Amino acid sequence: MPDSWKTKLLADEDWLGSFLKCHPSMSIRSPQATSLSRATSFNKNNISLFFANLTAVYQRLNLSPCDIWNVDETGLITVHVPNRVIARRGIKNLGKMTSAERGTLVTVAVAISALGNMVPPFFVFPRVHYKSHFIRGGPVGSEGDANPSGWMKGENFIKYAKHFVQHVKPSKEKPVLLLLDNHDSHLSIEVLDYFKANGVTVLSFPPHCSHKLQPLDRSVYGPLKKYFNRASDNWLAIQEKQ
After folding, report:
1. DSSP string for residues in 138-194
2. What is the pLDDT of residue 102?
3. 149, 169 Cβ separation under 8 angstroms
4. Which pLDDT tens digit goes with each residue over 83-115?
5. Would you say 161 and 114 are in contact if contact means Cβ atoms under 8 Å apart?
6. Which has the closest alpha carbon to 183: 163, 159, 157, 201?
7. 3-state class of 50 per DSSP?
8. Residue 237 burial (CB count, 10 A)
9. Helix (H) or strand (E) run with residue 106 in it
10. H/E run at residue 54
11. What torsion, rounded to 10 degrees, do the Cα atoms 145, 149, 152, 158 define?
12. Please, are residues 99 and 236 in contact by the beta-carbon 8 Å criterion?
């Protein structure tokens, strides 16, 4: 080991370059930022406890796949992120048409069953007052609400709970299980009492673990945002030609 390594407590750049040449499968990459809460909460004890509770509820209610639902929301920015383009090397100012430079956030909440059925989406718009024309042209059965931030809050989620019950039609004789994250807006006393009165059993994911356990996060919302960007790109391209 060179003396400089002992002095600096660090390998030099020449060694790093040689190491990467000897190991072509390795590369310098930017890690994804992960909070300490997520890193520490996603552990064997928390996950085992969640699946033990899930098994107990599943057996107690004698559920079928069509009775197990997962709900989550995601934010969609009204100004989309342009897709990548092919351009000559060295060009610094490369632009692509978007609706504006800065956008506002619209939250969309979706519930999907283990059988693949879907409750029409519920939107939260960044407005003080909600107007029915906000969802004009949306999927059949869509509903919406508003608050200045555009995020889902407790007063919005109770309206979503009624939207969910209206479409799924659970009852105490035919209960359903609803999986969701443990955000405060989802677990208010008003929401839990309403779900209980209508035959909906709620099971929340462990805190800070939805990035690994939330099915909608893992398999639906990523592709949704890609398709949203692509559709926005195509629409703007048509408008530009016109």
Report:
1. S-TT-EEEE-TT-S--HHHHHHHHHHHHHHH---SSS-EEEEE---GGGS-HHHHHH
2. 63
3. no
4. 676 777 777 766 665 666 566 789 999 999 999
5. no
6. 157
7. helix
8. 12
9. strand 105-113
10. helix 44-61
11. -50
12. yes
Beta bridge mates, 119: 111
The residue whose two tokens read 């992960």 is 34
What value does the mean pLDDT take over residues 131-160? 93
Nearest-5° Cα angle at 135, 79 to 127: 65
Please report, as a single letter, which amino acid is at residue 16.
L
pLDDT in tens, 29-63: 877 666 666 667 778 888 899 999 999 999 999 99
Q: Which of 76, 133, 137, 81 is nearest to 109 (CA)?
A: 76
User: What is the radius of gyration, based on Cα positions, of the chain?
Assistant: 24
* Residues, the chain: 242
What pLDDT does 189 receive?
A: 93
Name the pairing type of β-strands 105-113 and 176-180.
unpaired
CA atoms of 36 and 38, how far apart (whole Å): 5
- DSSP code at position 124: E
Measured in whole angstroms, the distance separating CA 87 from the mean position of its chain's CA atoms is 32
Task: Provide the whole-model pTM.
Answer: 0.76
The Cα diameter of the chain in Å comes to 76
Q: Give me the DSSP letters along 219-238.
A: HTHHHHHHHHHHHHHHHHHH
pLDDT in tens, 199-238: 999 999 888 887 788 888 888 888 888 888 888 878 777 7
Fold topology of 63-241: Nucleotidyltransferase; domain 5 (3.30.420)
Domain ranges of the chain: 63-241
First CA to last CA distance, the chain: 67
